[in-house]
Amino acid sequence: MPTQPLSQKEIEDRLRELPGWSLDGDRITRRYELADHFAATALVVHAAQIQQELNHHSDLTLGYNTVAVSVNTHSAGGITEKDFELAERVEAVAPGHGAR
Known about the structure:
The protein is an alpha+beta fold.
């Protein structure tokens, strides 16, 4: 069964569970500010590993000490549970942001 896009209300409800994440058009996004470039690069590597495990990929933008994550499910034409699973997993490995 194909993945179905979430309703606007479902997206808003799920975003309340992910502080720092927001809706930007047809994507959920988050910008992390980290201690330095090494920490930001490490987060990108961790996020890439999570994406490989889930076979679901986001746009990652690496700055000096920042990482921006932007995700949706292209094949479903919107935001799905897969996007929130990826967001939750990235949040969990972000230094100072998630669980250890």
